[in-house]
Specification:
Elements: H1 11-29, E1 34-35, E2 41-42, E3 55-58, E4 67-71, H2 76-84, E5 90-97, E6 109-117, H3 122-137, E7 143-146, H4 147-155, H5 164-174, H6 186-203, E8 209-215, E9 224-226, E10 232-241, E11 244-251, H7 256-272, H8 282-291, E12 296-301, H9 302-309
Helix pairs in contact: 1-3, 2-8, 4-6, 5-6, 7-8
Amino acid sequence: MTTSWQPSAEITTLKRRAQYLADVRLFFAERDVWEVETPILSQVAPTAPYLDSFTTDYSPIGSPEKQTHYLQTSPEFAMKRLLAAGSASIYQIARVFRNGEQGRLHSPEFTMLEWYRTELTLNQLMDEVNALLQQAFDLEPIIRLSYRAVFEFYLKFNVFTCADDVITQCAKQSIKGLPADLALDRDGWLELLMSYIIEPRLAAMKMPLFIYDFPASQAQLAKIKQDSAGNKVADRFELYMDGVELANGYNELLDSDELRQRFASDNERRRQQHKVEIPVDENLLAAMSHGLPNCSGVALGLDRLIMLVMGKQDIKSVQSFSFEQS
């Protein structure tokens, strides 16, 4: 078998990547946001059905018992425990892991920039993301569009008032090659339309873009609010560049009882999809019960961002060694 020991990225690219990371750290240092480190291995993992975690066994010396641990898909839960303990605003440049995700834009192991601001509203956090991308990555200002406006412009229906079958028929007519018996819920069809129809058109805009006010059913770990038309929406945003999703930002949910219900709902969906249930993070729930401060947070994929900024076509071209070479 032929192997390649050489890096998957050019050395000049890796040096530029190192400078980007230094510039990110300078950006936060200037704002008195301090860098933290949290465990990569955890006894729990996110329950979200769309995430699959790597597992590993911890075998205590002298004990036949094995304890299942998970490689983190995000440092979010541990960082929120620090916030509840009084850390104030924090950030982390973390190595994270997602099982099954591999391709031009995906790697099972990648680098995530995640930060939480106790002083900022979600709109102010969007301003800060904008400032980071301009200062550290020399990008142009980010424009903002609501989720509803994007669907109305490209697909001509209101995501908050139209019937489920309108969305289903739109997807079946617009996306070629879908199985005739494909059965999805409302959000599943919306996600297909976003991925296959809208994101390619966003790529043609050739500028970074925030999409905000997602349907409340897509809140994940964000608060729910009412938009200007009285619709219940998730108080969150996503950042796109060249049609590629780069970041997710939330006005963070503070209610531990509501989060427990969302974890339970996630695990019910996992059962329906014949996926393994995930243990609930009782430490996070206890920290939230103690008191998570009002905060906004965002997770940004650094590999993807650096790839796009440098004009590369594949995520492994900005990583020292690709997953296949690890």
